Amino acid sequence: MASLALCAVSGVASGATLAEIKARGYIVVATEDDYPPFEFVKDGKPTGFDNELIEELKKYAPFQVRHEILPFTGILAGVATGKYDIAITAAIMTKERMQSLDFASPIADASDYYLVKTGNTTIKSVNDLSGKTVGVQAGSAQLAHVSTQLKATLEKNGGKLGKVMQIQCTESPRILWRLNTLRGLSHEEVEQVLTRGA
């Protein structure tokens, strides 16, 4: 299990201070565009937990809140380099990220899973991933996890880490969210999404 937190102003990069934000009259907040239930766009409008939080911030902040919506891969780097003042997004807290970013208190736990196509009988455990191509969401904390922890686990058991591909993976969290809340996808519908990417 990993902790998800709202990412706040970078402590290392040249992010603006509260005094600077007040003086210029605005803060730039970055969020993701497709990570339900935290952040997503519905009927052309940003919604979800984090976007609702931003709407509340707009009501009470003594400055303008400029909301930038973008893919996750650019959010944390944008905060770390000062392009955005803060990110209000679900991000896994890692030691590496905490060297350049300050995080709010965790709001949820996250678990990693691996998915295989129905009928694939060659992968029944983590050890069966030895030598296989593994896809990991681009820009995610799981990339480091695969490169270190999965690699160590496989090597400990006589295996080896195969090719690791970074992919734009927007369906996984959406599938889980839909399964639980939105429209209750059946197992067959989940299989269709995974095989077609629809």
Give me the secondary-structure topology.
Elements: E1 2-7, H1 18-24, E2 26-32, E3 34-35, E4 39-42, E5 45-47, H2 49-60, E6 64-70, H3 75-80, E7 86-87, E8 90-92, H4 95-98, E9 103-110, E10 134-137, H5 141-156, E11 164-167, H6 171-182, H7 187-196
Parallel strand pairs: 2-6, 2-7, 10-11
Antiparallel strand pairs: 1-8, 1-9, 3-4, 4-5
Please summarize what this structure is.
This protein has 198 residues and is of the alpha/beta class.
The count of β-strands is 11
Percent of residues in beta strands:
25-35%
CATH hierarchy, class of the largest domain: Alpha Beta
| Helix percentage | 25-40%
**Biggest sheet layout:** 3 strands, antiparallel
Using only CA atoms, what is the Rg? 19 Å
**What is the molecular shape?**
elongated
CATH topology descriptor of the largest domain? D-Maltodextrin-Binding Protein, domain 2
Tally of structural domains: 2
Distance between the termini: 28 Å
User: Can you tell me the CATH superfamily of the largest domain?
Assistant: Periplasmic binding protein-like II
Q: How much is the average pLDDT?
A: 76
Strand order of the biggest β-sheet: 8-1-9
Would you list the SSEs in sequence order as H and E? EHEEEEHEHEEHEEHEHH
Structural class: alpha/beta
Helical region count? Answer: 7
Give the low-pLDDT segments: 6-14, 181-185, 193-198
